[in-house]
Write the structure tokens for this entry.
Amino acid sequence: MTKARAFLFAAATALTPVTVKAADDQVTTFSLDNGMQVVVVEDHRAPVVQHMVWYRAGSADEEPGASGAAHFLEHLLFKATDKLESGEFSAVVAANGGNDNAFTSYDYTAYFQRVAADRLELMMRMESDRMRNIRLTEQDILTERDVIIEERNQRTENNPRSLFGEQMSAAQYLNHGYGIPIIGWMHEMETLDLENTMAYYDRFYHPNNAVLVVTGDVTPGNVRELAETYYGVIPADPEKRTYERTQEPPQRAERRVIYRDARVAQPYVQRSYSAPERDPGSQEKAAALTILAEVLGGGTTSYLAEKLQFDTQKAVYAGSFYRGTSRDDTSFDVLVVPSPGVSLEEAETLMDETLAQFIEDGVDAEQLARIKQQLKAAQIYARDNVDSIGNRYGQAMSTGLSVQDVQDWPNILQAVTGDDVIEAARAVMNKRASVTGWLMRDEEVTQ
Amino acid sequence: MMRIFATLFSLVFLTIPAQAEVKIEEVISPGGIKAWLVQEPSIPFMALEIRFRGGASLDAPDKRGAIYLMTGLLEEGTGDLDSRGFAKEVEGLAASFGYDTGDDAARISGRFLTENRDEAVELLRRSLLEPSFNQPDIDRVREQVLSGLRSDAQDPNNIARLEWDSKTYGDHPYGSAFKGTVESVEALTRDDIVAAHSAVFAKDRIYVGAVGDITPEELGPMLDKLLGDLPDTGAAMPVQADLQIEGGLHVTEFDTPQSVAIFGHSGIDQDDPDFFAARILNQVLGAGGFESRLTTEVREKRGLTYGVYSYLASQDLAATVQGQVASANDRIGQAIEVIKDEWAKAASEGITQKELDAAKTYVTGAYPLNFSGNGQIARIMVGMQMLGLPIDYIATRNEKVEAVTLEDTNRVAAYLLKPDNLMFVVVGKPEGLSAN
């Protein structure tokens, strides 16, 4: 759970901006006077730049009844502004040989362009324009709403695994926005309108609620100059309002989901445990859970694969997942895809027995050493892809973490011990705070 | 205000985007293996990309899926290392290896640190040249493949892909999934896997790209060590496919809310003098991004889909133009009508000068964006070699795009786009559509 449950729009600060140079000397961070944070990751090997703006608002910040508004708005930001006609934004990016797109998650919404480095100013001019100046029409709403409905059809309605995942999340969260799909529930998407979309825009699209991330062939000085010119002139949201998400009560009862669908070819069982996320200044638990996901179910040499795929061969696949970069409580998931002839009931029993045995056995020291070695090497490989470094900062900083938290993270991971992992496993694998789901064929329908 | 802003933008258009500067050198190993290399010593690792032409299309008759399964088994043990032993060694070196197969090539990729490069290369060599192919591993990985095939059989995108391919390519390898079928994969034996290995991996079909912290003097001996013991030759290359598209609409009933349609007809070879004109034409008609005519008409104006696109599928053994769209069952019919109209309009009227100019600016400007990251550059270099492009191609490619005229694109549109032969394969429960 995040320490400060609510997040406050930072007020404009009169202090001299401090430039923090990362230990990894590719990264520079600073803030504009209006509170907008800036991250620059340099790579001068190719004359290319990626320009991103991350808003600290996602689907979990929507008003009740307006699910899908955050994502719908993301689509609508490609329509008209005071200065650009509908569709002109992307047309200008393309005419400059660039690519652009955007994405929405539970905690953030981000917009990006990849383009030749000498086009950065143009990108900033357009992106800063649509931060405050979109001009939507009723026709935009009607047509684009059909597009997002088709997007839901494509991503979710046509895919039983997505539908199952949606039900799992809905069961995991009784009182928090993470229980509602990012794209929205269909019946609410159908009613999204100009009013609730603009309400979301006015509430969250402000420089003091945004992070600018520029990666590639740029210098921090040049980025600062341009950012001050285009983003720095936009006033901070004066209301200093606090936005408080509803939070989960303690989970006191184990929950179960059984989803049947005629289109399911490969049934599986999934366990989702309520789990803490990376908290500012306190990332140790999340680090232990991150290592746990690797040790327990991160690939061929993991504990679950060893026991269920190799030794007993009861599973075609077994793995575990944890995504610690999240504003509020997240989940730790275990998945078992049974071999032919193994029932879901049997698979679930095997899952429980294997998890219990893992806690009993402890962590293999050599395996832990290999994982840490890989994490170290990942920092070398990451330098080959500065966009991914930028994404890491953007994601962390739009879920409440600081630059320092991002830079401390590799060392915190290296410090995790086998005992920490087992302790984290014991704490997280509380069945009372879990959802167990079966994805099954619909027995009533024969293909 | 709008006009002033637009003027500012158009000033920016005038400058030519930066060119990619990629210094490729050709390296011939002492043993005669050719590679293209880009030295990039700033980060202490290298990316290696190796392709073997032929790939899954070399499957023996009735052994469909053997090469796909064989490729998946390369990381399942060699000599005294079993599956997990091998994986532990790779993890310990913090290297990563990829083993993959496609219609036209089998692909081996590696990424390893300078500090333990020799050990990593030796491990990669053992997996490629001395795989164990132990029966328990074959059976275990086979189950994973079968699980995937069963899922594919319930996925409308995959069902549409299979329908389109079988109708287009018939008995040619392109006409079936290279993963095989449940029946063919169940029947594969260890001998089939061993035969697949010797069919695919041979010196007469190797293409190599290397990018990173390595010199030409180091790369040559490394390649000899890695690939020198491969046999000189493998299976005979497959023949060209004989396209069987006659147009029309085919519906495969599948109970799902949104129908998926794949459409297309014959295309154009990559070495055709008109290829760049066709590339520009497709950019305007249906390439990705928000600007194409198909996206404008089907998505932006009518909201009929989340995504519609077309592309030039110019493969080794067949060239087609293909596209895909997905719309709710009660709207797919309308989407198809719009696509047909746009196809016919482009064929008869071509594109406009303004569209040509915008497409050229995009296609030339976006080209340098591709060359970021060692692995990505290695992949591009191997693709260039497989197409027989010259080593200085990157520097000259945009000139070829610039040279395309409106006359070229519209002449190509008239013969390349064939509205009457445009075949649609639809999977779902489309309303008001019936096969003809």
